[in-house]
Write a structure and sequence with these properties.
- The protein is mostly beta strands.
- A hairpin with a 4-residue loop joins strand 7 and strand 8.
- The two termini are about 30 Å apart.
- A 4-stranded antiparallel sheet has the order 1-2-3-6, with no helix packed on it. The chain has a 4-stranded antiparallel sheet with strand order 5-4-7-8, with no helix packed on it. Strands 9-10 form a two-stranded antiparallel ribbon.
- It is built from no helices and 14 strands.
């Protein structure tokens, strides 16, 4: 699965049944991609899902949400869970892409525990991020910056290449 800019369900895990099934779910989406630094900003969200038509009440529930590039976060809830989904925690992280291929993937997990009922489980999933083009170069054309993919003639064939520029005595990928 490749992430989009809308939350996508990565995985769910069953916890128990009390007049309806209870699940923990992990969702993820990306909000932006930085072509210069080859990074993506990703949001991870833990949600509880209750399939019943009433509500369940528990003295305490707690859990954790974690994901690639983000700091894990704990959450707790001591009020009732209504039918449908309840957002338990959201975190944001920065994911680095491979400088050669522009590809990156994420893994994420969410756990939920109901200590009074003995219910506990973790949902873990993974997804790919849309690749960031690493061969793109900006060229001045007709007084505008235009993205172009550089090619180099090698042994009579055109081969896509990457441009590097010398800046302050170091090589930097051209963007």
């Amino acid at each position: 699965m490749t992430l989009t800019k809308s939350y996508q369900l990565l995985k769910e895990a069953y916890l128990g049944n009390s007049y309806g099934s209870v699940y923990i779910r992990i969702y993820a989406k990306y909000s932006e991609q930085d072509e210069t630094n080859l990074t993506s900003t990703v949001q991870y969200q833990a949600r509880a899902y209750f399939s019943g038509n009433s509500y369940i009440l528990d003295a305490q529930s707690n859990g954790t949400v974690s994901g690639t590039g983000a700091t894990s976060s704990n959450y707790s809830k001591s009020s009732r869970y209504e039918p449908g989904e309840t957002v338990l925690g959201t975190i944001t992280g920065t994911v680095s892409h491979n400088p050669d291929t522009g590809q990156a993937s994420i893994t994420a997990s969410a756990s939920l525990n109901f200590p009074n009922w003995g219910w506990s489980n973790t949902a873990s999933g993974s997804a790919d991020l849309p690749p960031i083009e690493t061969s793109t170069l900006r060229l001045g054309v007709n007084n505008q910056w235009v993205k172009a993919t550089p090619y180099l003639g090698v042994n009579g064939q055109w081969v896509k290449c990457k441009a590097y520029l010398g800046v302050n005595n170091t090589w930097k990928k051209g963007v």
